[in-house]
Design brief:
With 356 residues, the protein is of the alpha/beta class. It contains 11 helices and 18 strands. Helix 2 runs antiparallel to helix 3. Bound molecules: 5-S-methyl-1-O-phosphono-5-thio-D-ribulose (MRU).
């Protein structure tokens, strides 16, 4: 998708380095950063220079290639793979991408390791892009249906950033929006600010602006009243881990939005590529929920009068704060899952019909 009129993807490999857009600097500064070592990849994931389930998976796959470039000893590669998986716990894509990449490496001549890994990482990216495009084509039907009934702008609420910046291109939750916009269907997006890191305000609103899609940032607590007033036609969010029974783990606050949607008969859709399905965990209680540094809550970042990013304390000095990064929305609150293979019920049967 576009930034300042130019098409970008979120990650690519060029001249022995991996290039990413540093998302900690957006929306104020656009900076392309180079990852040269596997440690760089691990830190980029931990510090959220890259974030969003599909993108951290792709970064981990390229991270293994960077490890091989440094040292193609299999023990070092395996240790690096483990560290990559541990870099953030909730999104299943990390483990999925690392396992997929590592599977190719046993019994391979050391001079082939790098090429094989680079090919796999590129394939993971290309596949994600195609899957996200298909999510858009499938989700477009829902937006179109609402528009055909309403004959007026479709108001869509989204939480966090499940946009193209969280994937390779298109995004998951935003792909139906981009497809609707390209087709000429008028859409307006309510963008949840998404405290504490403000992925909605800083990233979703930014990327929608760059594509000239009307959007309004709202405080995270505003969605409920907008739904009561009939100002939300549908919600679409992403997911970091979807269980086989349709329970959905996503950015903290998603659950509360789903409850409000349920109470107000607003359709609540979750968009996902199949790489975010966890077929193993049977009970949502066993999903590892990331707890991040409380400084992300107690401090806030913005730019000062000299265009420099600055961090300031906003809480009482002595207060404790707790920063859980994800929550789980039970399947019963999810109207449907929009996947690359079609739309299904958020249930074991629904998922099984699409993914045998
Ligand atoms: O903590 P983040 O910014 O990595 O969280 C991102 C989300 O919660 C997204 O909704 C999710 O990864 C889906 S991305 C297509």
């Amino acid at each position: 998708m576009k930034i300042a009129g130019k098409e970008y993807k979120t990650i690519w490999y060029e001249k022995n380095v991996v290039k990413i857009i540093d998302q900690t600097k957006l929306p104020h500064h656009f900076k392309i950063t180079e990852l040269k070592t596997v440690k760089d990849s691990i830190n980029a994931i931990k510090e959220m220079k890259v974030r969003g389930a599909p993108l951290i998976g792709a970064t981990a796959a390229y991270g293994i290639a960077l490890a091989i470039q440094e040292n193609n000893d299999l023990d070092f590669i395996k240790k690096s793979a483990e560290e990559l998986i541990q870099s953030r716990p909730t999104a299943i894509n990390l483990k999925w991408a690392v396992d997929r990449t590592m599977k190719n490496l046993s019994g391979i001549n050391s001079d082939q390791l790098l090429n094989i890994t680079l090919n796999e990482a590129k394939e993971i990216c290309d596949e994600d892009e195609k899957f996200c495009e298909n999510i858009g084509i499938n989700g477009l039907k829902i937006v179109e249906e609402i528009y055909n009934k309403k004959k007026d702008t479709v108001n869509i609420l989204t939480h966090c950033n499940a946009g193209w910046l969280a994937t390779i291109n298109w995004g998951t939750a935003t792909s139906p929006i981009y497809h609707a916009h390209k087709k000429g269907i008028p859409v307006h997006i309510w963008v949840d600010e998404t405290r504490p890191r403000n992925q909605g305000a800083n990233l979703t609103s930014y990327e929608l602006n760059e594509e000239e899609i009307p959007n309004t940032i709202i405080a995270d607590n505003t969605g409920g009243i907008l739904m009561q007033r009939g100002e939300v036609d549908m919600c679409i969010v992403g997911t970091d881990r979807t269980l086989f029974n349709g329970d959905v783990c996503n950015k903290i606050g998603t659950y509360l939005k789903a409850l409000a949607a349920y109470d107000n008969n607003v359709p609540f859709y979750v968009a996902l590529p199949s790489s975010t399905i966890d077929w193993d965990i049977k009970d949502a209680k066993n999903i590892p929920i990331e707890e991040r540094n409380s400084e992300e809550l107690s401090h806030i970042e913005g730019i000062d009068e000299n265009n420099q990013i600055k961090k300031v304390l906003i809480y009482p000095n002595k207060s404790r704060a707790m920063n859980l990064a994800f929550d789980v929305t039970p399947a019963k609150y999810v109207t449907g899952l929009i996947t690359e293979r079609g739309i299904c019920e958020a249930s074991r049967d629904g998922l099984k019909k699409l993914f045998k």
